[in-house]
## 1
Amino acid sequence: VRLRVRPVTRFAGEVTVPGDKSISHRAALLGALGEGPTDITGYLEAEDCLRTLAAVEALGAEVTRKGPGQYRVGGVGRDGFREPADVIDCGNSGTTARLLMGVLAGQPFWTIMTGDASLRRRPMGRVAGPLRQMGATVVGRAGGTKLPLAVRGARPLARLDYALPVASAQVKSALLLAGLFADGPVRVTEPAPSRDHSERMLRRFGVAVETTGRTATLVPGPLRGMPIDVPGDLSSAAFLLVAATIVREGRVTVRGVGVNPTRTGALEVLETMGAPVTRSEAREDGEPIAALTAASAGLRGTTVSGALVPRLIDEVPVLAVAAVVARGVTEIRDAAELRVKESDRIATLAAQLARLGAEVAERPDGLTIAGGTRLRGAEVTSDGDHRIAMALAVAGLVADGETVVEDAACIATSFPGFADCLNRLAGADVVMVEP
Ligand code: S3P
């Protein structure tokens, strides 16, 4: 699949975006571990999150689709999973793989997991290591650090007090989920806070989880099924908000977006760059939710580093596009984690943005972007990475001539309907999807 993108002068309107990817995964997993059913609305029906639903089904939970984005997950309780009859394929989804490893660490049977070519390259030792410390057996490729991996759990697992070498919500969540099967509290400390959706949802399900500073502590206990309404995904909304700021006549409101403070780093960066994103219709439903509005602005370069990075880690591709058109230099540092995402996002962004005429220098832990570039349309490729594909399409909205984004089927990983959404806001067919 390729996208053909034409430049636009106007990008305006009000939209919603599909459900939050992180929260959808967690609703499926915790729902399956709960006692009693969990009814989910707003579930992200994209490839990644459907993998998690298929995984809990393979482990014996009953999943019923009630309507678009509506699922009932029949909880089996902490003791109800059974050995799956086949390999669990996590597709492109790091969250499915890592969170599931945590759950499987507490299951007294073997499960074999795999994923697509991108996921099989990604590091799993960061989860396998501490799970082994807790008593689970994890074996597999590359010394048991890469998929395919086989996990055999133990009961009970040993308690754990663990300092993560990198801020990672996936690793933190995996260890907290394993903690549900431990003989005592599990404490996880991060170098900087990452998204806390797991902690929040575990609390909603009745599990004692306490957060103090950078440390989360879970005391094992049963989960009770809970209705979950998944908010819109800020990481999807970010593509539309950035597009609104860089198009000449841009003004976009995205309603019903999750604005958990551990996720809103990109909004702060846009504000620093000169494009404040305003909030309205604020409400709280287990997670803070708001409507977000962004409009055209003369952007300025900025520096993104330190504790801000985990709070915008998935937004770096689209922020890099904003930085290319902004006046002045933008530095993105302390973001080496980007090298082990769905693609090496530092290398992919540097190479593909350069094809559009941007001046981007690759650094070990980030990018230096000389702004003020007038982009010219070109043929670029996503390298199979959904967020790179969408970021490049946004760049195409402000490039001269046509931009062709190759390898764009991956957008279905997280944002089904992305092209339609851009076309609606452009008021014309500016993005064409070619098989
Ligand atoms: C996610 C955590 C982040 C993020 C990913 C989703 C999650 O990864 O990049 O898209 O749902 O926990 P890390 O935790 O590996 O940083």
## 2
Amino acid sequence: VRALVSRPPTGGAELIDVPPPDLGPGQVRVRVLEVGICGTDLDIVAGRYGRPPDGASYLILGHENLGVVEEGADPNGPLRPGTLVVATVRRGCGTCAFCAAGRSDFCASGNYTERGIWRANGYLAEEYVESATELVPVPAALRACAVLTEPTSVVEKAIEQGQLVWDRVAYPPGAGPRRSRALVAGAGAVGLLASLLLRLRGWDVTTIDRHGSTTLAAQLLGEAGARHVDVEAGLDALGDDRFDLVVEASGSAGLDSELLDRIATNGVLVLTGIPDASGGTPKALGAQWRRLVLANQAVVGSVNANRTHFAAAVADLGRLAGRWPGLLERLVGERRPWDDGPAVFGHRPEGTIKTALVVRGA
Ligand code: BGC
């Protein structure tokens, strides 16, 4: 079968023929429809991240997947031939307590694998096989936006983590749940999805980026009732504003550090971006960490997502589609045939929020 591969640590992207995957017990064969591209993929192709399966010379790319069940499914179960499915990304280490409990997103040993990223082949192939337990069914009505399920799952976890921390203080005795002010830093796919999910949950949302106020992202944010602020000239554009929940979705270490100054008392900063480990020297670090303690703030790193987050993502994509019809489809701004993959990795048009590579048409 054809597959789009990279060769970490060298990187690159090329379409090659690979052996078709064997169908094992409990596994399902899935035909791939489309796969979204994110910063992690760009890092792998640029030779900055990723690892092939042990002993292999290449890594099949792609983790933001959408496919259709072909064979091996339980004809009486939720997965039948023709069912739309999204596969999870991480596989547990098999040894730590978190993975044993189904929380590989909190794997403590670090010996996990991630399909399309780390020691496991991804989904940018004509087909893949996977355990039925790692596949999440998607309603056919979400076909046009379901490629956003995986990034949405990552956002679901990040917001869940932030909400858990916020909830430790957000319920004054006698009061009900409080939704307050959220800042989302970054208006790429993850930042936009975070903004939308927070709006859906009733937060007052401000989203920042450095791309001006006439972009599609700024427009979508406006339609969803979020405030967009261009911080090209710096975070001073936010005035003195501080926020109860700050969700970082830019991957900039320098910005992470600046965001500490934007957390309100009792607030929480959730980092989702994976910054370049070599970049950025945080300013006034001592003062920032000190204030972090004195104001009962929390900084929570968040990576990956488990099956429950994927299921939550599918449900929320349905709610978003109902609340803002057509908006998610515009977020997947560009669809390209996957043969264009190598070129797509090299050049992404300005203003495109999410590019999906189409492996197989409707
Ligand atoms: C993926 C996650 C993964 C992370 C780190 C992200 O792009 O969405 O599933 O855990 O990269 O590899």
